[in-house]
Amino acid sequence: MIRKIVQKENPILRQKALEVEKNHITSYEIQNLITSMIETMRAAPGVGLAAPQIGVALQVVVIEDKEEYFIDMLSEIKVERGRKPIPLHVMINPKVTFLVNEKTYFFEGCLSVNGCSRITPRVKKIKVEYFNEKGEHKEVIADGWYARIIQHETDHLKGILFTDISNNKSEISNTTENRNKWLNAKAVDIEKYLKICES
Ligand code: ZN
Question: Considering 68, 139, 153, 171, which one is annotated as catalytic?
Answer without folding.
Answer: 153
